[in-house]
Each structure stands twice: as C-alpha cells, then as structure tokens.
Amino acid sequence: YKLSENFKMLREAGFPLVETFFKWYNFSGFIAVKN
C-alpha cells in the first residue's frame, strides 16, 4: 500500500491521530492514537 492509503485505512478504522515515526526505503512505522 501507499503511505496515503495506510493513513486513510487507519483513519477509517477510528484512529483520528496518525503519524509516521520511521521511514526507510519501503518500510514505514506508524503511531496511531484512538480516542
């Protein structure tokens, strides 16, 4: 998936705050906070 697609999926799953904390080549780490 693209970075934007991952953000969209997380937001649709109920995570209003989504941030990328790590990005290296095709690997990314996310922090998502759910209220």
Structural commentary:
With 35 residues, the protein is α+β, with helices and mostly antiparallel strands. It has one domain. 29% of the residues lie in helices and 43% in strands. Strands 1-2 form a two-stranded antiparallel ribbon. The longest helix has 10 residues. The protein is flat. The model has no long low-confidence stretch (mean pLDDT 96).
Structural class: alpha+beta
Indicate the overall shape: flat
Distance between the termini: 25 Å
**Count of separate DSSP helical elements:** 1
In total, the number of strands is 2
Unreliable stretches (pLDDT < 50, length at least 5) are none
Order of helices and strands: HEE
Strand residues, percent: 35-45%
Give me the side-by-side strand order of the main sheet.
Answer: 1-2
What is the helical fraction, as a range of percent?
A: 25-40%
Report the mean per-residue pLDDT as an integer: 96
How many discrete structural domains?
Answer: 1
Note the main sheet.
2 strands, antiparallel
Features:
35 residues, alpha+beta, two-stranded antiparallel ribbon, 1 helix, 29% helix, flat
Summary of the model, kept short:
With 35 residues, the protein is α+β, with helices and mostly antiparallel strands. It is built from one helix and two strands. The chain has a two-stranded antiparallel ribbon.
Secondary-structure map with pairings?
Elements: H1 3-12, E1 17-24, E2 27-33
Antiparallel strand pairs: 1-2
